[in-house]
Specification:
The chain is α+β, with helices and mostly antiparallel strands and 389 residues long. It has two domains: 58-167, Rieske [2Fe-2S] iron-sulphur domain (Rieske Iron-sulfur Protein, 3-layer Sandwich), CATH 2.102.10.10; 183-360, Naphthalene 1,2-dioxygenase Alpha Subunit, Chain A, domain 1 (Alpha-Beta Complex). Helix content is 21%, strand content 26%. The chain contains nine helices and 19 strands. It has helices at 18-24, 42-53, 175-178, 182-185, 208-215, 221-224, 226-229, 330-354, 369-381; strands spanning 6-8, 58-62, 72-77, 80-86, 92-96, 111-112, 118-119, 126-127, 133-135, 156-160, 163-167, 194-204, 238-241, 246-252, 281-287, 291-295, 300-309, 312-322, 386-387. The strands form five sheets. The protein has a seven-stranded antiparallel beta sheet with strand order 12-18-17-16-15-14-13. The radius of gyration is 22 Å and the shape is globular. Residues 1-10 have low confidence and may be disordered.
């Protein structure tokens, strides 16, 4: 799909010319990169929240983080607070973290156990873990007030092989559809058995799209990641998922390298059932627009992109190993701490440049074919490029 067949401007009013968007929709060798205002305009950011992040599944971690009835976690999804929990029967539930009385945030803690109910800290309206309103002081005389219609607003929650997803859309698409071809690629990996060893949160002074673009190319690797290219050549591998909503592929290890760690070695056992080919590769996939999953022979990583503003992105980074693995993943975390910070710094530099008066739409390298596809996919999802005709 190097050609790209999107040329017609459709819904919405982006703060750039129709011609500049059509330039992104050209075939790769004639295309131009995204216009600068799309990285910084507050109106664009609000439309992205509405058209992308409030309508897609977001992987927030693993379901075993909510191990027992009463376990809970709170997250922010596109400006909406969400509380995810296990009810008394052990079922996963999720709700908007908003009281039905006057909209007060209900649960302040980020995570915990032993939750038996939810009580609003303002006027003490109370709810059970199935979202039903149980108590509303001094509401007995209020006309046409029905407790049955005043429960918490539900949020869709689903799991896939131990990963936990939420979607704040009132009409979410099936999770399986949003995973595209990724389940087939990950079939050999024992994802149900993973346990988390590390979680790090980063604050990045860059627009989220720059971070997604960065994840979909290694054109930058020789200059930005000298230790990475010693382990896996930047022009190795291939992209095998290219049409969305999942993008990515693999890179090959050099001879003697077993994983991505400071020295390419590992004391961890490799996952059982992997082919000889998988043992020589690292797989990278963006689950658009919110996640980035990497599959290695002995561990898995998950990035969760959380856009905070046009100029700032929060990123939660997790490392997972097999639940029976005795060796820590400190070496893997050390490798990624270096690599991640290299990426975040260059993304911040790119963001600064995109805001200047000198910025003009650039050209894609032939090493950035998937970035071009991702940018076209973004414009299509935003309603700014439609099918040719």
């Amino acid at each position: 799909m190097a050609g790209g067949a999107t040329t017609r401007i459709t819904a919405g009013r982006p703060p750039v010319s129709a011609a500049s968007l059509r330039a992104v929709g050209r075939p790769l060798l004639r295309a131009r990169t995204l216009p600068g205002p799309l990285f910084s305009d507050p109106g664009v950011f609000e439309q992205e929240r509405d058209r992308l992040f409030r309508r897609t599944w977001q992987c927030i971690g693993r379901e075993d983080e909510l191990a027992r009835p009463g376990s809970f976690r709170t997250v922010e999804i596109a400006g909406s607070g969400v509380v995810v929990l296990r009810n008394a029967s052990g079922e996963l539930k999720a709700y908007h973290n908003v009281c039905r009385h006057r909209g007060t945030r209900l649960v302040e803690a980020t995570a915990g156990d032993g939750l038996r109910g939810i009580v609003c800290p303002y006027h003490a309206w109370s709810y059970d873990l199935d979202g039903h309103l149980r108590g509303a002081p001094h509401m007995g005389g209020v006309e046409e007030f029905d407790r049955k219609d005043s429960g918490l607003h539900p949020v869709a929650v689903a799991t896939w092989r131990g990963f936990l997803f939420v979607n704040v859309s009132p009409r979410p698409e099936p999770l399986e559809r949003s995973l595209g071809g990724f389940p087939a690629r990950a079939r050999s990996y024992p994802l149900e058995r993973l346990r988390r060893t590390h979680r790090v949160e980063y604050e990045i002074a860059a627009n989220w799209k720059l971070i997604v673009q960065n994840a979909n190319e290694c054109y930058h690797c020789p200059g930005v990641h000298p230790q990475l290219v010693k382990l896996t050549p930047y022009r190795s591998g291939e992209e095998d998922l290219r049409t969305g909503p999942v993008f990515g592929g693999w890179m090959d290890f050099v001879d003697g390298v077993r994983t991505l760690s400071p020295d390419g070695k590992t004391a961890r056992a490799t996952f059982p059932g992997l082919s000889a080919t998988d043992l020589r590769r690292v797989y990278y996939y963006v689950l658009y627009p919110s996640n980035f999953l990497s599959l290695l022979p002995d561990y898995v990583t998950l990035d969760w992109f959380i856009p905070v503003s046009p100029d700032r992105t929060r990123l939660v980074f997790d490392v997972y190993v097999d639940r029976d693995e005795a060796h820590s993943a400190d070496d893997a975390m050390g490798f990624w701490e270096t690599t991640n910070r290299q990426d975040w710094h260059i993304c911040e530099m790119a963001h600064l440049g995109s805001k200047t008066s000198a910025y003009t739409q650039g050209r894609y390298s032939t090493e950035e074919e998937v970035v071009h596809l991702v940018d076209q996919y973004y414009l299509g999802r935003m309603g700014w490029l439609g099918p040719k005709g």
